């Protein structure tokens, strides 16, 4: 138990922690992180942890990139605060927009800056409405997301999210937010169904949903190229081709949520390239600044930008924007981040490291607790199963994912359980030895939890036998 006047004690008295069991936290307290060094963070007692999740899928360049500190310092000295409202502008915002448009996986006309991934998705939804309204179809407003998607936590972004805890007792999703199938072949595929057959079935279900709702009322479909917080779900072969054919048939816009997959994570600059998405809007955040500053962006297709211009002629002001959206220090740091990705060939580093990453994850797939092991680029996961052969999950009460993550933490690796999926998303600059350390620890953590579960089962059986 921490002392009341320690940092941990003061935390428990004052802070609400996002996505945390608040009652449990009141009992257990925080892990206080004090500094970062490469792919490691250090706690307030000097213990070092490899950050296996790059913070929250963010710190692609690790935790001590001096060039980003320098960029922030210089911008703070030159123009520490300003805004883009009413036609004001400044160099880092302009240069960041130019660079993003040059990098975009499909031709994009403009960039609109926000402060987070949630705001980016919220903004994208408003642009969908604006676009359809400009074309005389204001009723084309419903939006389809997927079960197990994670798109953020504002009222609209949480409505897109397809996870129960984002909705329960918040009175969400809002009306007009629909969810279609999760493209998780391992869990949702029928016996003997190939990835292609599964993808065809899901595209068929999507088409039926659009027809049931009325194509004139459906404005957009949103997808993460790889689902992140829903469990690192990699789309089955041909999925996006088949889905996009349906969207095109009914004039439904595609929003690609690249908040996790953007900037090299999947081995290409964008997940759209890895999985063949041709989006109308792209939302970005996280690795856009390597997590060093809060910034997000929406990239806007030429057709949508044209509609926005038309709307502006009719309505006057484009009535949307956040005070700090495109903040000078955030854009300066993001710009420097993108330069470093190029200067250091971070994409090349990801491609060089990806085979080792995939091989180590695949090897964990043969552990008796693991049902599925998957990876693309430098993001991956293992899915824990009570009976991997018959795909029977653990009862949630066992909290097996959390147990594995706890055992890994005790050995110096920070991971995050997504129910019984343990996900991996290390900084993109991780080297071969650091990757080996990460997976050696996970292997030991799995062995420990397997032994704990065996002991638990033996004790339960003994107790049952006594009762009988
Ligand atoms: C795919 C995806 N979209 C959107 C968000 C929301 O981003 P933020 O937490 O910056 O609002 C997240 C956050 O994890 C995400 O993973």
Could you walk me through the main structural features you see in this protein, from its secondary elements to its overall organization?
Helices cover 44% and strands 15% of the residues. The protein has 17 helices and 15 strands. It has helices at 7-14, 22-28, 54-57, 66-78, 91-103, 117-134, 155-160, 164-167, 185-188, 195-213, 239-249, 271-275, 302-315, 328-343, 346-364, 400-410, 432-467; strands spanning 33-37, 40-43, 48-51, 110-114, 142-146, 177-180, 218-223, 253-257, 281-284, 296-300, 370-376, 379-384, 413-414, 416-418, 421-424. It has a 7-stranded mixed β-sheet with strand order 4-10-9-8-7-5-6, sandwiched between helices. A 4-stranded mixed β-sheet has the order 1-2-3-13. Helix 6 (117-134) packs across helix 13. It is globular and about 80 Å long. The relative contact order is 0.14. The mean pLDDT is 96. Bound molecules: pyridoxal-5'-phosphate. Pyridoxal-5'-phosphate is lined by residues 56-57, 116-118, 121, 150-152, 224, 228-229, 257, 259-260, 285.
Topology (SSEs and partners):
Elements: H1 7-14, H2 22-28, E1 33-37, E2 40-43, E3 48-51, H3 54-57, H4 66-78, H5 91-103, E4 110-114, H6 117-134, E5 142-146, H7 155-160, H8 164-167, E6 177-180, H9 185-188, H10 195-213, E7 218-223, H11 239-249, E8 253-257, H12 271-275, E9 281-284, E10 296-300, H13 302-315, H14 328-343, H15 346-364, E11 370-376, E12 379-384, H16 400-410, E13 413-414, E14 416-418, E15 421-424, H17 432-467
Parallel strand pairs: 3-13, 5-6, 5-7, 7-8, 8-9
Antiparallel strand pairs: 1-2, 2-3, 4-10, 9-10, 11-12, 12-15, 14-15
Helix pairs in contact: 4-14, 5-14, 6-13, 10-11, 15-17, 16-17
Pyridoxal-5'-phosphate (PLP) binds next to helix 3 and helix 6.
């Amino acid at each position: 138990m921490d002392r009341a006047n320690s940092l941990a004690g003061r935390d428990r008295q004052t802070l609400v922690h996002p996505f945390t069991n608040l009652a449990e936290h009141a009992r257990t307290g925080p892990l206080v992180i004090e500094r970062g060094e490469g792919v490691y963070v250090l706690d307030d007692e000097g213990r070092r942890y490899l950050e296996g999740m790059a913070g929250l899928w963010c710190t692609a360049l690790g935790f001590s990139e001096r060039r980003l500190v320098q960029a922030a310092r210089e911008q703070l000295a030159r123009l520490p605060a300003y805004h883009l409202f009413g036609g004001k502008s400044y160099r880092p915002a302009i240069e960041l927009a130019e660079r993003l448009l040059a990098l975009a996986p499909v031709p994009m006309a403009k960039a609109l800056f926000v402060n987070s991934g949630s705001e980016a998705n919220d903004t994208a939804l408003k642009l969908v409405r604006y676009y359809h309204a400009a074309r005389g179809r204001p009723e084309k407003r419903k939006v389809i997301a997927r079960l197990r998607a994670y798109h953020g936590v504002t009222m609209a972004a949480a409505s897109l999210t397809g996870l129960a805890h984002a909705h329960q007792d918040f009175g969400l999703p809002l009306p007009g937010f629909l969810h279609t199938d999760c493209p998780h072949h391992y869990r949702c595929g029928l016996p003997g169904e190939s990835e292609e057959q599964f993808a065809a079935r899901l595209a068929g279900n999507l088409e039926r949903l659009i027809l049931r709702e009325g194509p004139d009322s459906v404005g957009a479909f949103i997808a993460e190229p790889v689902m992140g917080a829903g469990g690192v779900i990699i789309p089955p072969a041909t999925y996006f081709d088949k889905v996009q054919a349906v969207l095109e048939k009914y004039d439904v816009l595609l929003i690609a949520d690249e908040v996790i997959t953007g900037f090299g994570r999947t081995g290409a600059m964008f997940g759209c390239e890895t999985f063949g998405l041709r989006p109308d809007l792209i939302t970005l955040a996280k690795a856009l600044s390597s997590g060093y500053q809060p910034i997000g962006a929406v990239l806007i297709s030429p057709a949508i930008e044209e509609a926005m211009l038309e709307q502006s002629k009719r309505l006057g002001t484009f009535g949307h924007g956040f005070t700090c959206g495109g903040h000078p220090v955030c854009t300066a740091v993001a710009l420097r981040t993108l330069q470093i990705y190029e200067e250091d060939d971070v994409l090349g580093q990801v491609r060089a490291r990806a085979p080792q990453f995939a091989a180590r994850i695949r090897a964990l797939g043969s552990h008796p607790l693991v049902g599925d092991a998957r990876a693309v680029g430098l993001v991956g996961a293992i899915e824990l199963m009570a009976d991997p052969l018959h795909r029977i999950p653990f009862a949630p009460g066992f909290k097996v994912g959390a147990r594995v993550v706890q055992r890994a933490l005790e050995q110096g690796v920070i991971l995050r359980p997504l129910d019984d999926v343990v996900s991996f998303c290390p900084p993109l600059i991780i080297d071969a030895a650091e990757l080996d350390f990460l997976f050696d620890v996970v292997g030991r953590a799995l062995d420990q939890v397997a032994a704990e579960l065996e002991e638990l089962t033996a004790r339960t059986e003994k107790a049952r036998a006594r009762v009988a």
